[in-house]
Design brief:
Layout lengths: L4 H15 L5 H10 L9 E7 L3 E7 H16 L12 E7 L2 E6 L4
Antiparallel strand pairs: 1-2, 3-4
């Protein structure tokens, strides 16, 4: 039986999912929520638009790289990626210890 590289890769990724090496979409959504905290606006970092997790994802700067790496790992799995057409964003602020994206003001 001859297996293609794509088949082997898909089997490997499936095994990683079963073993929990990649977070589920629901778990990653929860991690994004938990990483959104601040004391002031400068604590917040926009890690960009990542379908299926949302437009203008903002998290604490200390969590940004970790969350972005997890999102990229999730999106790398065949069938998980999608596209968004996101609007420009306004200023990012810290309100009630959460990073908040303001609406873009068109001239």
């Amino acid at each position: 039986m001859k297996l293609s590289i794509q088949s082997i890769t898909l089997m490997f990724i499936s095994i990683l999912f079963i073993q929990g090496c990649f977070p589920s979409k629901e778990r990653l959504e929860q991690e994004i929520i938990e990483a959104n905290y601040c004391e002031q606006a400068t604590d917040c970092e926009n890690i960009g638009d990542h379908c299926p997790f949302g437009c203008a994802i903002v998290v604490n700067g200390g969590e940004a790289e970790r969350i972005e790496d997890k999102i990229e790992s999730y999106i790398a799995v065949p069938g998980n990626a999608c596209d968004y057409d996101c609007d420009p964003i306004g200023e990012i602020s810290c309100e009630n210890n959460l990073c908040v994206v303001g609406e873009y003001e068109f001239d």
